[in-house]
Every structure is written in C-alpha cells, then in structure tokens.
Amino acid sequence: MRGVMAKTGRVLALLALVALGAMARPVAAEVPKPKLPPAKGEKCVEPTEVMRRKHMDYLLHQRDDTLRRGIRGGKYSLRECLECHVTAQAGQPLPTYGSPDHFCSACHQYAAVQIDCFSCHRDRPEQPAAGQARAPASGDGLTGPAIPVRTLKVLGPAEEKR
Ligand code: HEC
Ligand code: HEC
Ligand code: HEC
Fold it and tell me: From the CA of 143, how far away is ligand 1's center (Å)?
C-alpha cells in the first residue's frame, strides 16, 4: 500500500512539473523586447519594419557592391548606419559593439546573433556625437558648432598635398 502511495506521489509530482513547464512557455514569450538606443535623423533608409527583417541582406549586398564592383557611398553603407544609430548617452563615451548600449549589439545579444563585421569595421561613428565635439565654453572663440572631423580630414590632407 505504501509503495503504491509513493508511486502515486511521484506521478503527481511529475504531472505538476509538466503543468509548470506548460505555464512557463507563455511567460517566456512575453520577455520584453531589447531597449534600443534612439536613432539620429528623421527616418531609416527603409521603413523600420523592413529594416528589422532585412538589414542583413542590405548590408551584405552593399558590401559585395563595394568589394566586387567598387561601388562606394551606397544607400546601405555600414558607416552611415553607425552615424545615425550609435549615439552616446549624455556624458558617456560612445558605446562599443558588445555593449548593451550599442544599437547593433543590444538587439544581437537579445537574439543571440553573432557577427564578425566589427573585427574589421569601426563600431562607432568617426566623429563625436553632436554637442560632444564642442570646445569648452571658455571664451577662446571656439564655442561655435563643431566642424565635423570628416570635413577637417577632407580639407587637411588636400591642403598639404598642394
Ligand atoms: C576581414 C575584414 C572585414 C570583415 C570581417 C568585414 N568587412 Fe566589410 N569591408 C571590409 C573592407 C576592407 C571593405 C572595403 C572598404 C572600402 O574600400 O571602402 C569593406 C566594405 C564593406 C561595406 C561597404 C562600405 C560601407 O561602409 O558601407 C559594407 C556595407 C560592409 N563592408 C559590411 C560588412 C558587414 C555587414 C560585415 C559583417 C557581416 C563585414 N563587412 C565584415 C572588410 C571587412
Ligand atoms: C539617417 C539616419 C539613419 C540611417 C543612415 C540608418 N538608420 Fe536605421 N533607423 C533610423 C531611424 C530614425 C529608425 C527608427 C527608429 C524608431 O522607430 O524608433 C531606424 C530603425 C532601424 C531599425 C529598426 C529598429 C527597431 O526599432 O526595431 C534597424 C534594424 C535599423 N534602423 C538598421 C539600420 C542599418 C543596418 C542601417 C545602415 C544600412 C541604418 N539603419 C541606417 C535612422 C537611420
Ligand atoms: C531589431 C533588432 C536588430 C538590430 C537593431 C540589429 N540587428 Fe542585425 N540581426 C538581427 C537578427 C534577429 C538577425 C538574425 C536574422 C536571421 O538569422 O535570420 C540579425 C543578423 C544580422 C547580420 C547577419 C548575420 C549572419 O551571419 O547571418 C548582420 C550582418 C547584422 N545583423 C548586422 C547588423 C548591424 C551592423 C546592426 C547595427 C547597425 C544590426 N545588425 C542591428 C537583429 C537586429
């Protein structure tokens, strides 16, 4: 008799576990979406919904266009993605790939996606975010809007060559 009761107990415990497992599933589906840092600019290069699903195809096509066909400055430039999407929180340095504050890795960590792109490519925009590039307000005449670093680079070497 005792044996039967112990067995029934084990079966009940097992049933309870199965029931718990079934309950856990809808809960897991409600895990919050990753919190993405805000983007600069009015809108993305394609509608947000499309970008969510297809950004990888655009990027890989753009890469092929550049590497195989020498086409540069395309619509889906990786550099441009970072210009709009990798931004710093007030007083913080720009986040690097791997940080939950970095647009691309916030989502990729959540979705367990691995990419190697940033072993070669810069994971941040080349210029400091607007507002960060300003010289300190010290009355030295340099407090106006900062000249983008890119503009300076374009001007600099060209002047030297002449
Ligand atoms: C081994 C180094 C390396 C890796 C890894 C790499 N790239 Fe590149 N990528 C390059 C080089 C070099 C260029 C050419 C840059 C140029 O000539 O303008 C390039 C160009 C590009 C371009 C076109 C230029 C631009 O800024 O838009 C895109 C887009 C791009 N890569 C995306 C990617 C993506 C996405 C990944 C990851 C899946 C990746 N790359 C991984 C080296 C790499
Ligand atoms: C001119 C600025 C700009 C550029 C360039 C840009 N984006 Fe966007 N992107 C945005 C904005 C704005 C949104 C909308 C964000 C929102 O709805 O909260 C967005 C949305 C997205 C989303 C969806 C995010 C979400 O909320 O789910 C992805 C993914 C994305 N962009 C990837 C890219 C990639 C990859 C590139 C480069 C090929 C790129 N973006 C270039 C501004 C830009
Ligand atoms: C809204 C979430 C989200 C954001 C933001 C996001 N990704 Fe993705 N990315 C994904 C998901 C999900 C996949 C995997 C899709 C699949 O496997 O079908 C992916 C896949 C990729 C791939 C292809 C990887 C492979 O090996 O197939 C590349 C390249 C990529 N993302 C680049 C980027 C870059 C660069 C950024 C930032 C500019 C970015 N992603 C931002 C969700 C995101």
Answer: 36
